## 1
Amino acid sequence: MDAQTAPQKAVSGIAKTRVTAIPGDGIGPEVVGAVQRILAAAGAQIDWEEAEAGAAVFKRGIGSGAPQETLDSIARNRIVLKGPLETPVDYGEKSANVTLRKFFELYGNIRPVRELPGIRTPFSGRGIDMVIVRENVEDLYTGIEHMQTAGAAQCLKLITEPGSERILRLAAALTLAEGRKKLTCATKANIMKLTEGMMKRVFERIMPDYPAIEPAHMIIDNCAHQMVIAPEQFDVVVATNMNGDIISDLAAGLVGGLGVAPSSNIGDHAAMFEAVHGSAPQIAGRDLANPTALLLSAIMMLRHIGDFAAAEKVEQALLVTLEEGRNLTGDIARKGQGVGTTAYTDQVIANLGRTSAHASRAYKPLTLPDWPRGVWHQAPKAREVTGLDVFIETGTAPAELAAALQAAAEGTGLGLKMIENRGVQVWPALSGQPFLVDLFRCRFLLAEPAENADADIAKLMAAIGAKHTWMHVEKLQRFDGKDGYTKAQGEN
Ligand code: NAP
């Protein structure tokens, strides 16, 4: 933890850490209450400040799902223990979870996945013990989507160099803090060479800074396969947002599912700890919910605020409870022997002070990578505009479209190089047998480097706009002598 995430201490009495507690929806209040009771019994020095978010807030017409008082509480305390929040389908505009993650730039989603005693799965006995670190704010989840034509939608996959470096350095710091050895960066760099490739390239650039860590790169689909075939090989795995989302759920499934999966969302301004599961409305208010996932998240929180002793005490009590298998909630108990949330919580409390057969890992404080404030900008040494891609909606055949575009380009300094449809070149030569839709990417190149390429582009766009329906334009650029764009399938 660095100075920026240092939690607020209460002013009076013993130094307590003030934490924003969001009970949330459905089973949230029950599991948050259970965890608060266990932490109090363990002597954790926490001063809770309760705050509201979720369904009730949406119903009051607050579209973000989190009122200003809650945002203020988090900004003050910087540490949050959060119950699940319902994402209403009929009202409210955004997910309150996403609001909180984005508002506080909680860029690192940390999801430990390990075999727990007494939780039987097809993988029991394999010794699964890994952490998935998922980038939490970039990628396809920036939510930048546009309809290109009436029947073609596009979502922007945005990956930045600082965003990649920050999550990779967080993953490396976590590897060291948890005394782990290997960091696997899982990407789809073989297909998405610029975006997923960015993550891989930054990984290769920074890993020499961490000689104690064994670096590995794995293609994400193989990573999913390997996680099922040989999950014990993984130690820490880092991935971009959507890939990380999918493999972290897959990994959780190996050790008992979402009901026992904890997580943290970490950023420079705040850290939020929550179970992976949702509000389970079917069992809400019936004393049936299992608080284990949130308890494991709270143990992560205790370590984050530096209370390693309380974290180990609670963790050991939980492990003893699971090992002995007495008074477990219905979802993890032997058939017919399940008890309620309250009785399970009482059992964990009764086991405080006992030591399990499973030693806790030796953790060191996690130091977040130091990150400059302000707008990140890295000017290239050389930049050259070489042309543009124009996305045009039409139902005409490629050859006819090409003739019209060549006519439009006359006198502009730009020439039509190729036309593609859904990534496959269809002009000048047809590559393969693609099914054509009404969205064509038309690539124009400058005949020679131009002093003012924008003027040529504006002239061409005026000519195209007079006769065609275009949706968007991408400038083709070379940065430091390298093409800043990929070729279409079949383009030479
Ligand atoms: P869910 O709430 O995770 O529940 C799915 C099922 O998992 C439940 O019906 C229940 O199964 C079981 N379950 C989950 N947590 C449990 C626990 N602690 N103890 C015992 N059983 C548990 O998933 P969902 O039904 O898809 O989502 C419900 C709502 O939660 C939605 O509004 C969704 O948007 C929201 N959600 C919020 C978050 C978050 O706040 N981070 C995450 C995911 C979903 P049985 O029916 O077999 O008892």
Note: The chain has a mean pLDDT of 94.
## 2
Amino acid sequence: MNKTQDRVVIFDTTLRDGEQSPGATMTHDEKLEIAGMLDEMGVDIIEAGFPIASEGDFEAVRDIAEITKKAVICGLARANFKDIDRCWEAVRHSERPRIHTFIGTSPLHRAIPNLTMDEMAERIHETVSHARNLCDNIQWSPMDATRTEHDYLCRVVEIAIKAGATTINIPDTVGYTAPRESADLIRMLRERVPGADEIIFATHCHNDLGMATANALAAVDAGARQIECTINGLGERAGNTALEEVVMALKVRNDIMPYRTGVDTTKIMNISRRVADVSGFQVQFNKAVVGKNAFAHESGIHQDGMLKNPQNFEIMRPEDVGLSATNLVMGKHSGRAALRAKLHDLGYDLGDNQLKDVFVRFKELADRKKEVFDDDLIALMREAGTEVAREHMSVKFLRVICGTQAPQSADLVLSVDGVDHMVSASGDGPVDATFNAVKQIFPHNAQLKLYQVHAVTRGTDAQATVSVRLEEDGRIVNGQSSDTDTVVASAKAYVAALNRLIVRRQKTGTDRKEIDYRDTMQ
Ligand code: KIV
Ligand code: ZN
């Protein structure tokens, strides 16, 4: 192995493992857009979905396979012929297709389909051989590998290699391992399994103990050459290894980790924001690399040091991840050309019609706010994107009466499929009154699971971004909106979540919720 400049393959699973995160469901168009961005930034392999899970998943994988230019397009399949055939139907439209098939090999996971070790070994041989007869590029994963007995793990990895797997992925499904153990496991497999030199080992880490990125990098040091990751670390529970973390760690610490990736890091910020918007999972402020505070230096000592030499407190430059170095403030006198240039700096290249629409919104905002900062524009772009995507219902008019005298009340006009409905409602506070008004017009039993308000910038005229999460019959949906008026942002976020719920209700075919992910055979 060439230790000096070894290439590590980046496998992004935002659209599969990331989208599995409850509430992170993306629309078809959003998936295609994210896949395009991943391809353009140089991700090597895109896991585009789980084709058997639903008609929608199938169509998304097929369409991504058709349009993607550079990346390998991969789909997930459990250890049965039906899943594998369906996966192949979707990915075969790619110039570079891959089938990824898996089965849970740890004692706990073997118990679910109730197979003996021998029966499971036989099933792995049959399914990987079947997949290999369809496609040259096969990835196989022993799910929960980090809790599988070593002897059995070696045995099944050898069977998968002999049956034709070209990549063996070692998942830490429950985020249980630690860096040294992660490295030892890869080393052990490379030493003990016949044929290990012929294939690529991949590492797939979940973040339950906050060690996903460290575990992935340790595995690379031990010889793994594919890292599985998601944008913003999106994923079930505490998420997955974050793409931006591993890519930047390999770039910044190339001295001690001499591996390179093909990812253009200047595209990181843009895709991070877009994934946050479409998944409804906002990035925590102090998240490494992409958090709002990752390059902010507020304390006096830090600011002083930064002015003397940015390297005092910054190990990477904002430009390295695509943040614009300047923070030119916009105002109501700024023209269309300035707005276009500013949005370009922020990573948004708009056509003339789109710019026209965004310019109107910008002027409205600039009338209400003295200074429009980068984050205001990002929130504004999010608003524009959200409204185009889901417009069953929209808030037309809202007036609330609030203050010390209860009950607070709301007058609301809501447009539902083009027809305006007006109601008045009261509640325990202005937000409660507003939500009650929405419920009068659109009765539903969805439970409010999360209501969160963030100020986009500083000052009393700052925009507020409101996030709402709803649950109905096990379906979880998120909605978000920003406005200088917190109650208006709340109403719009609530309605955005309901719009998503309507889409989810209308989804035909088998919904992913009905698939038992742990029963890998079915
Ligand atoms: O975490 C996991 O084990 C997975 C497998 C399907 C690879 O996502
Ligand atoms: Zn996973």
Note: The longest strand covers residues 393-401.
